[in-house]
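quick one before i forget lol
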Amino acid sequence: MSSAAAETRENRMGTMPVRKLLVSMSIPMMISMLVQALYNIVDSAFVAQINENALSAVSLAFPMQNFMIAVGTGTGVGVNALLSKSLGAKKQELADKTANVSLFLAGMNWLFFIVVGLLFTRVFLRGQTDIPEIIGYGTTYLRICMLCSFGLYMQFAFERLLQATGRTVYSMVTQIVGAVINIIMDPILIFGLFGFPALGVAGAAIATIFGQFVGMTLGFYFNLKINTDIHFSLKNILPNRFILKSIYTVAIPSILMVSIGSVMIFFLNRILAGFTTTAVAVFGVYFKLQSFIFMPIFGLNNGMIPIIAYNYGARKRERILETIKLSVIAAVCIMLLGLLTFQLLPDRLLGLFNASEYMLQIGIPALRIISISFLLAGYSVVCCAVFQALGNGIYSLIVSIARQIVVLLPVAYLLARLGDLNKVWFSYPIAEIACVFICTVFMKMIMKKIDFAKE
């Protein structure tokens, strides 16, 4: 990027009307994440056509998939931080080394999950259920996803290199194309269309990795042909101590933040399985559906964070406050739409997943109760992003741990002991109330950090 272009971008960050700036920076990421959310829903909807146990198996596999994503995205956050810093400091050699090392780390992540997939998949699933058919489905699905995760981790690596050098549109393209290919291949491989064999759950897994390999290929092409800020060379691929320390000092907290969700889902699945495996299937469906509500907010956050970070560096308090205000309003509006949808149309949402009468009986109250938490969740999600933008990522980690491990799981366990499944779902609104309280305390603390007039 030329110095003139960089100056233009910096001026825009500091001078463009905040509303227009926030929209322009958030919309591409929101679109990308909506497509990803749509893929999650469509994938499970097709699997549900096999039978309810297949849907339960994919739901039980989700914590491990979430952990795989945590490792990939967390490593990418660490790589991005070092790469962007190196480019900004005009340290081209270090930037090139970091980019090449990111590919090595992607390969190591893949090898790690090959071992985990071969040795621990059945143990992981048996920790949540004892039904042989579900364990069989889950083992098949997870092992394919884990043993063939090379495409997943390389796609992560190439996308983060594009993002770190300001080429977010190309990163968006790799994500969207990969997700669309996945959606197209799902019914073909699951049900055996156009002469392909009907592979069932295995077909869903193969469609997933096929989309990842397509995304990886596009990411490789864009970096090789368009990303002129970095240069690839085999001699630079092995890491040194400085680069590893620099990357994982940032990456480990990020990995932990996302992994907390996997821990919560694993143990909540165990609690729900004590009632019925249909409850596990309902919980899995909820997670797919809620991603369609939360993903746009995460896209909004991706646009908001650099605006706040830039204006914090420029000591422009009013622009920071306006960005936070607009982001909270937008997030709350999105969550209100989600709440109305879950309250008014729970039967139709569950119908997307071929829900039986029993699944509807459990799922309708579940979606209505859990979605009460949406009223507060938009505020909390934006607050956590503000903490990260202002360099207090530890606040976000504390909020995540408090919400999912300290409050939600113990409350769900205690409510489950009352013997009423519907009461377990109230653990979500209760946890969100606690989360809002903690976020508000941290926001008051962090507001002092941007009170430049008192410095």
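fyi The two ends are 35 Å apart (CA to CA).
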